[in-house]
Design brief:
Largest sheet: none
Helix content: 55-70%
Shape: globular
Order of helices and strands: HHHHHHHHHHHHH
Number of domains: 1
Structural class: mainly alpha
Number of strands: 0
Mean pLDDT: 76
Strand content: under 5%
């Protein structure tokens, strides 16, 4: 009996030394939830397409055709992040989890905002009270802190684990990333009427400062010599990655993707600053794609004025 009890104690201690956190069952990405999300996104795509084709028929093809492609691509990115087979891997690989965050916060929001026309969303924001509220909500300072705070808070290990353990909090996490992304990109693209317009140099600085929280977090994940989220120690190590290599890959992916996307947006704004002949801004144009609006306006120039020049 004594020998047996000693052996059991020794085995329990040995198991304690090799103990790894149990892998969390990923119940919140069931087939029913994927079907509901897919159905909602398909409904939004059909509703948007119906609205777009109606406006196009009224304007005889003058409406910018690239907007519908941008909006639908943004919805596709949301589906990949929340309802595709990738969503089944976010509890096994930190890299898959990071891809979800990048799709919801960095890639989908600007595409959706670029696909929204000011004329299409002007009616709900006609009241003065609503416009004042939206001007505060889309203020660059508020949008910057909202995006940075969402990014940092959800990557705190204890908060991160709450999102993995609870289906409800996992949905809140994904919704907060999408909302923070829409807020962050709103001062850059300005889809809302009467939104606060900052000078382009200030928006370029806004984009540069937004890379700092991402750089700090991604650098920590890349150069840390331990696994920050121990739950991935018990993962099946998909694609042959260890938990530490998976963490380093996730950090490098975040570092690269955010830098490239923000660099593209900053380059577009810088090019507009250096453009020698800037066209007059129309009230229904977005902040970024104004070159396309200038090309559309060319066929409707008054020929008498051209001859006079």
């Amino acid at each position: 009996m004594r020998h047996g009890s000693w052996l059991a104690t020794a085995n329990s201690k040995r198991q304690g030394l090799n103990h790894r956190p149990p892998m969390i069952s990923h119940l919140h990405h069931g087939e029913s939830e994927s079907v509901w999300i897919s159905s909602a996104l398909v409904f939004a795509a059909l509703l948007y397409s119906r609205r777009w084709f109606g406006v196009r028929s009224q304007k005889h093809g003058i409406v910018d055709g690239w907007r519908v492609g941008s909006f639908l691509l943004g919805l596709l990115f949301i589906w990949i992040a929340t309802a595709s087979p990738l969503a089944m891997l976010d509890h096994e690989m930190l890299t898959a989890h990071m891809v979800q965050h990048l799709l919801l916060m960095t890639l989908a929001p600007p595409l959706i905002l670029l696909g929204m026309s000011r004329k299409a969303i002007r009616r709900p924001f006609r009241s003065e009270l609503t416009q004042q509220f939206m001007s505060v909500l889309t203020h660059p300072a508020f949008c910057w802190f909202a995006a940075a705070g969402t990014l940092v808070v959800w990557h705190i290990p204890s908060v991160f684990m709450v999102g993995l353990r609870s289906p409800m909090w996992h949905g809140v996490e994904q919704a907060s990333f999408l909302t923070a992304g829409l807020l962050f990109w709103s001062p850059v693209i300005r889809p809302l009427p009467n939104s606060l317009k900052w000078p382009e140099p200030a928006i370029v600085l806004y984009l540069f400062l937004a890379t700092l929280p991402c750089d700090i977090l991604s650098g920590f994940l890349v150069f840390c010599d331990r696994v920050v989220y121990p739950v991935f120690l018990s993962s099946p190590h998909s694609f042959g990655f260890s938990a530490l290599e998976d963490q380093q890959c996730a950090g490098a992916l975040m570092w690269t993707c955010v830098t490239v996307v923000y660099l593209i947006a900053g380059s577009v704004l810088t090019a507009r600053l250096l453009w020698p002949h800037r066209p007059p801004q129309r009230s229904d144009d977005l902040a970024v794609p104004q070159i396309d609006a200038f090309c559309i306006a060319l066929p409707y120039r008054d020929p008498q004025k051209v001859e006079a020049v």
